[in-house]
Structures are given as C-alpha cells and as structure tokens.
Amino acid sequence: MGLTNVSNSIPYSLIGLAVVAVTSIKWLRVAQREHYVPGYVVRFASRWYFSRESTANTSIAVAMAFAFIAAISRPHSPGVVLPALAVGAVCAIFSPVGLGYKGRSSKLAWTRRAKVLYASTLAINAVLLVLAYLVNLSADLATVFIIFSPGLVDLATYLTRPFERRALEPFVKSATAKLQQVNPVRVGITGSYGKTSTKNYIAQLVSGALTVLASPASFNNRGGLARAVNENLLPGTQVFIAEMGTYQKGEIASLVEWVKPSIVAITAIGPVHLERFGSEEAILEAKREIMTGASTVVLNVDDKRLAALADELDREGRHVIRVSGTDTAREVSVVADDDGNAVVYHQRRRLGSTSTPVARTNLAVAVAVALELGVPEDVIGQGLAGLRAVSSRLNVVTTEAGVTVIDDTYNSNPSGARLALAQLEAHSSQGGKRVVVTPGMVELGSQQYDENRALGVAIGVSATHLCVVGLTNRRALLAGAKEGGGRSITLLEFRTREQAVAWVRQNLVSGDAVLYENDLPDHFA
User: Fold this and answer.
1) Which domain holds residue 87?
2) Does residue 390 belong to any structural domain of this protein?
3) Residue 95 forms part of a structural domain
4) CATH code, domain carrying 240
5) What is the spatial distance between Cα 346 and Cα 365, in angstroms, rounded to a whole number?
6) pLDDT tens, 142-157?
7) What does the alpha-carbon distance between residue 232 and residue 240 come to, in Å, rounded to a whole number?
8) 312 FRET partner, CA 20 to 30 A, in 19, 155, 181, 364?
9) Which pTM does this prediction carry?
10) 170 lies in a domain?
11) What is the pLDDT of residues 280-329, one digit of tens each?
C-alpha cells in the first residue's frame, strides 16, 4: 500500500471514530449475549452477512467488500476515497438487516463490564486512527475499521479478559470463605443439557429434610456462582447445589477448585455447544472435570459415553451411582407407567411417582443425589407427589379458550425436543390442530443442519402445523417437515416469535394444542 495525502484528514478520523462508536453498540450486545467469549462477535457477524437465507445482508456484505477494496487500492483519488468511506459507514450503521440496536428479546444491559468493553473498543479504534493519520491514511483505514467494527469489539473482549478475571477474584475469594464458614454439603451438576431441571428437582426433593440453596436461574459460571454464594448462602444451610456450565476446557475445573463439591452428577453428553468444543469427546473431557475430588459420582448410564465413564471409575475404585430412564436394574430408575406418570425405583423398590412431565433421566439423577444426601425414601416419595415443573421446561397449561400450551422455550437439545413432541401428541385432542413454534436448535456445529432436519421430520410426523421462527434453521426444519409430514403438515414462516404467537392466538381454538420449542434471542438471524 503506497502512502498518499489524498485520504489524510482529521475529520476522516473523527468520522471513523463516530461510526464505530455507533455500530459497536449492537456488536457489544452480541458479545454480552455470548458471555464475552472472544471471537464470537465476528462469528455472529459472519452468520448475519453470509446467511443463504438473507440476500439483503449478502448484498450489503458485497458492497462493504467493494468499499474495502477501494480503500486499500492504489492509486486512488478523492473520487474513490470519499465514496468508499460513505458506503462503508452507511452499510455498517444500517446493517445487518434484522439485528437491531435496542433488541427485542436480548436488550443490552449497561453493566460495568459492558461499559468497560465499550470504552476499550473506542480506545482501540482511536489509537488505530491516530496511527493511520500519522502514516497519511486516515480515510483509508477509517473505512477499514468501520467495516471491521465487530472485530474491534472482539479484540477489546480478548484484551480486557485478564483484567475482568482479576476483577472477579475478590468476589470468588469472598464466596470461598463463606462456603468454608457455613460448610454445607456441596453438590455439583453438569451435563450438555438437563442441568437446570435436575438442580431444581434435587432442591425440591431435598428441601423436605434439609435446608438447601440451589444456584438460581442459570448462574452456572464463576461470576454467577460467586454471586449466588455471597448473596444467598445463609448460616445453617446444609446443602448447596451448584450448576456448572462450560464453554471451554478448564472452566469447570476452575469452579471445582473453590466450590469443592463432594457429590457430583453428569446428566448427559450431547451435541449442545458442539460448535465451541468441536467434538462430543471434547465435551465429555470438559464435563468430567467436575469429578475432581468428589467422593460420589452420579451418572446417567443411558448415555453410552457416561456408561463407559462409569466402568472406568469403577476400575479406579470410585463410588459411582448409575441411574437410568429405562432400566430398573440400575440403582435408581425412572420409567413411565401406562398413564404416562414417571415412576421412581430405588434398587427396584418403588419410591413414588409424579404426573409432572419430566425428562426421566434428569429426575433419576436428582433422586440418586437426594438419597446420597441421606434424605429418607418416604420424604422423597412425598416430594415426587408434589414435584413442580421447572419454568419454561415442559410446562403444560390450558388457556381459557381451551387451547393446550406446552412451554418448552428453555430447551434446545435433540433429546428434550423429542420429549416435548411426545407431550404435544399426548395433550392434543382427536381432530385438533397440533402446532409447533420453533426456531430450531443452535450451537450444534457440523451437526446443526442434520439435527434440525431430523427435528423437522419428527415434527412432520407429530404435528399438523409447523411455525418456523427466524432464518437460522429455516431450510433444515422445512426440509425435514416436508419429509416427515408430506402434504399433511402446514408450513408457516415468521420473522419473529411475536408474529408466530399472534398467529397462534388468532387461529387456535378449543381442543387445539401448541408447543413452543426453544426460543432464540434476537442476536440470532
């Protein structure tokens, strides 16, 4: 790239700074929703601009590419520099189409970390623009930085990450001291899916005999668990249940280091977060970090990988409790009776049952943990009779209009989706509409298309109507539904969940049923 004065001016630098100050707000929202993992802003930007489902965004990406080429080409003149800057600025501000600044379902929260990241992004851009001015390339590089503003946010995320971790340490130390002072029995729960449901079932079953604190909502990372302990762990608490999630190897090990759970459980291994880990074997390696130092490990051996892990732990002399959703020969099992109730067995002895729709293996894990904590069998049986569904996970209600609504919006995995479809069939009346509203499943890596197509096939078999929300999995879901349902299923497409809900309210009547399966925040296409 040769040097030129044609494109060098402080106003050009100020324009570049101003545009990045605006555009980085929407990309900051993406970073926040993706837990500030470096690299994910650029990944999401690529999805928006290069989705086969959005010709508008692809066309904008092409225009930005031409602006980039014009900015770095030599020789050029003001007739090239200024249009390139203008095109880059307009495209960056008003695109991608569909990704808003305010957000419908995932609004930006101006937390301390968000403010630091925003200021860091602007500081990085300012430094780069000063350097650009010093080498006589203000407009050229202002155009480049505007076009690659998602990359600036990612760079700021990467550079500030060590400082954020250091800023969190005092809270972790405080939580560690409080755990040592109160000294509850600590239970750690992880898995590709089913963590939150299992945690809530344990809390319900144990609370009849012991004082228990479960980490709230999906507070399953370092900051969330530290906050749960610091704010909610009271003297006299006998059990602390910690849900532990991970986006990369080493995260659970870091949690275990200070929480030190003595009883741990792995609910399942599946393709959830496969995009981040690359393989299910890598997911298992990350999840098994939870076993470090634990005296008891509860495993769902319906999962072949966890069955093999149980055998490995046996050979090491570890205490393993095997549970199942099908096999009553396991130490704890949960099977369905003829009425669809979940019946719980401990060493083939019936403990009780629940009519609440549940993932049976999740409940089996919860019962095993409760037993290991010393909760009497009769107390567990009473807890099963009054077991409450977990919010937005297979919640079934009937509206005043007589429409059955199955809310499974917090589930996003193949196993959960199959269970939800079974509930749709069980709660629909003969001749009534059976409607599925879904954006499909995400973060499944190379398996995403195939898994969503398989979901579409299952929907085609079970439902009369499929309402596809958004663009992310539209092709896969529609292709699968056509394969599974042929001409018997009605296919509808909606840009937003709100539009699909409005259609449901206008078109469903008494005797109809609708399943809301998963809900993606609006930083997904």
Assistant:
1) 10-163
2) no
3) yes
4) 3.40.1190.10
5) 11
6) 999 999 999 999 999 9
7) 10
8) 364
9) 0.87
10) no
11) 899 999 999 999 999 999 999 999 999 999 999 999 999 999 999 999 99
